From TrEMBL:
<dbReference type="GO" id="GO:0016740">
    <property type="term" value="F:transferase activity"/>
</dbReference>
<feature type="region of interest" description="Disordered">
    <location>
        <begin position="31"/>
        <end position="58"/>
    </location>
</feature>
<feature type="compositionally biased region" description="Basic and acidic residues">
    <location>
        <begin position="274"/>
        <end position="291"/>
    </location>
</feature>
<dbReference type="InterPro" id="IPR027417">
    <property type="entry name" value="P-loop_NTPase"/>
</dbReference>
<feature type="compositionally biased region" description="Low complexity">
    <location>
        <begin position="47"/>
        <end position="58"/>
    </location>
</feature>
<keyword id="KW-0808">Transferase</keyword>
<dbReference type="InterPro" id="IPR039657">
    <property type="entry name" value="Dimethylallyltransferase"/>
</dbReference>
<comment type="similarity">
    <text>Belongs to the IPP transferase family.</text>
</comment>
<keyword id="KW-0547">Nucleotide-binding</keyword>
<feature type="region of interest" description="Disordered">
    <location>
        <begin position="261"/>
        <end position="291"/>
    </location>
</feature>
<dbReference type="GO" id="GO:0005524">
    <property type="term" value="F:ATP binding"/>
</dbReference>
<keyword id="KW-0203">Cytokinin biosynthesis</keyword>
<dbReference type="Pfam" id="PF01715">
    <property type="entry name" value="IPPT"/>
</dbReference>
<dbReference type="GO" id="GO:0009691">
    <property type="term" value="P:cytokinin biosynthetic process"/>
</dbReference>
<protein>
    <recommendedName>
        <fullName>Adenylate isopentenyltransferase</fullName>
    </recommendedName>
</protein>
<keyword id="KW-0067">ATP-binding</keyword>
Length: 372
C-alpha cells in the first residue's frame, strides 16, 4: 500500500494548474539530464534556482534554493516529490539512508522507475553496499554535488527522505561529524543553513500512521519481501563489528534470525532462496514452528517500523523547535481513506483529498518560495 497518488499523464490536475501561474513546463527544447533520462526544461525566467536577498553578502544572495520534504517513514514523501515535479521543473535527491544502497528494493520501499514518471533521481540505489556504509559526511559531499548540478541546469532540487541525520548533515553551514545534534547538547550555530530552504513536513496522525505502516508491511510481503530477503541471506556472515549499511535495513536482522532457524532452501546450482512462505507448508510440527517464527519476525518488523516513525517525528519536532521553519501538511484523511476503501476502490477520492490537503498547499508554498 504505497501512497503515490499520481495522475496517469503525470500532468497537474486542473485544480493544481490553477494554483500555479507559470507557463507550461514542457517545450520542444527540453533539456536532458546527463545520465540519459529526460529532465524538465529550464524554468521560466521569473524565478531563479539560487536565492535573491537584500543582504550585501554575495554568498547569501547566491545560496541555492532547495525544497525539503520531510516526514516519518511511509507518509508519502516520495509521492509528493513527484507531484511537485509535475508542476515545477525539478530533480529529486533521495535522503533515505537505506535507499541510497543498491539492492533490496522492496525491503527498503524504493520508489520504482515507473512511479518516478521520468523525474531524475539522485542518490537512489546508487551506492554499492559492499563498499561500506555511507556516512553523513559522505552524503553531505554527494548531496552538495547533486544540488549544484541540478541548480546549474536551472532545475529545482527536491530533497525527499526520512533520514534526518542525512538531511541535517547536507543542509547546515557547519557540520561536525563528531557531534550528535539530536542528542540535545548542540549549539544553535550547528543548525544554521547553507541553502535557502523551503521545508515541507508531511504529517499523519500517529494512530493512523501506525495502522497504515502495519498494513504496508503486509503489502511488502505480498510483493515479495520475504523472497527478496531469502535471496539476500548469507549464512556465513557474522557481522563481528555490528551491522552496517544495508544490513541495518528493517527486515534484514529480523528475517536473519528466522533464516538461521529455518534456512531457505536452495535451487540446485542457482543459489536462490526458496520462495515458499511458511503458511504455504504442511501442518506438521516443524511447519507450525516455522510459521510461529515467521509471525514473530513479521511482528518485529512492524514494531521496529513503528518505533522508527516515532523517532523520526521526534527529530523533526526538535528541528522545528530549534528554528527550522517547517510547514506542516496534514495527510491523515488521505491515509484513513486508503485503509477504509477496498483494493481498487476509492482511489479517485483519495487522490482528490491528497491533492486538496497536501499537494495544493505545497504548490502554493513552493510557488511563493520561488518568487521571493
Amino acid at each position: 500500500m504505497k501512497l503515490l497518488f499520481l495522475n496517469p499523464s503525470h500532468s497537474p490536475s486542473p485544480n493544481l494548474k490553477s494554483l500555479c501561474s507559470f507557463p507550461p513546463l514542457f517545450t520542444p527544447n527540453n533539456h536532458h539530464h546527463p545520465n540519459g533520462s529526460s529532465a524538465h526544461p529550464r524554468p521560466p525566467a521569473r524565478w531563479s534556482p539560487v536565492a535573491s536577498s537584500s543582504s550585501s553578502s554575495a554568498a547569501t544572495r547566491r545560496r541555492a534554493k532547495v525544497v525539503v520534504i520531510m516526514g516519518a517513514t511511509g507518509c508519502g514523501k516520495s509521492g509528493l516529490s513527484i507531484d511537485l515535479a509535475s508542476v515545477f521543473p525539478s530533480e529529486v535527491i533521495n535522503s533515505d539512508k537505506m535507499q541510497v544502497y543498491r539492492g533490496l528494493d522492496i525491503t527498503t520501499n524504493k520508489i520504482t522507475p515507473a512511479e518516478r514518471r521520468g523525474v531524475p533521481h539522485h542518490l537512489l540505489g546508487s551506492f554499492d553496499p559492499d563498499d561500506g556504509e555511507m556516512s553523513p559526511s559522505m552524503f553531505r559531499s554527494l548531496g552538495q554535488s547533486a544540488i549544484s548540478g541540478i541548480a546549474s541546469r536551472g532545475n529545482l532540487p527536491l530533497l525527499a527522505g526520512g533520514s534526518n541525520s542525512f538531511i541535517h548533515a547536507l543542509l547546515v553551514e557547519r557540520f561536525d561529524p563528531e557531534v550528535d545534534v539530536f542528542g540535545g547538547l548542540t549549539s544553535p550555530a550547528s543548525l544554521e543553513l547553507r541553502y535557502n530552504c523551503c521545508f515541507l513536513w508531511v504529517d499523519v496522525s500517529p494512530p493512523v500512521l501506525e495502522e497504515y505502516l502495519s498494513k504496508r508491511v503486509d503489502d511488502m510481503l505480498d510483493m515479495g519481501m520475504f523472497e527478496e530477503l531469502a535471496r539476500y541471506y548469507d549464512p556465513g556472515r557474522t557481522d563481528p563489528g555490528g551491522r552496517t549499511g544495508l544490513r541495518k535495513a528493517i527486515g534484514v536482522p529480523e528475517f536473519d534470525c528466522y533464516f538461521k532457524k529455518h534456512p531457505p532452501q536452495r535451487w540446485a546450482g542457482q543459489g536462490q532462496g526458496d520462495a515458499r512462505r511458511p503458511e504455504e507448508g504442511r501442518e506438521g510440527d516443524d511447519d507450525r514452528a516455522r510459521e510461529g517464527a515467521y509471525e514473530e519476525a513479521v511482528w518485529e518488523i512492524k514494531e521496529n517500523t513503528r518505533q522508527l516513525a516515532k523517532r523520526q517525528i521526534e527529530k523533526i519536532e526538535w528541528l522545528r523547535e530549534c528554528g527550522w521553519e517547517l510547514r506542516k501538511l496534514d495527510a491523515t484523511e488521505t491515509f484513513r481513506l486508503a485503509m477504509a476503501t477496498d483494493e481498487g476502490g476509492g482511489g479517485g477520492r483519495r487522490r482528490d483529498v491528497w491533492e486538496r490537503q497536501v499537494v495544493g498547499p505545497s504548490v502554493k508554498i513552493v510557488k511563493r518560495f520561488l518568487q521571493e
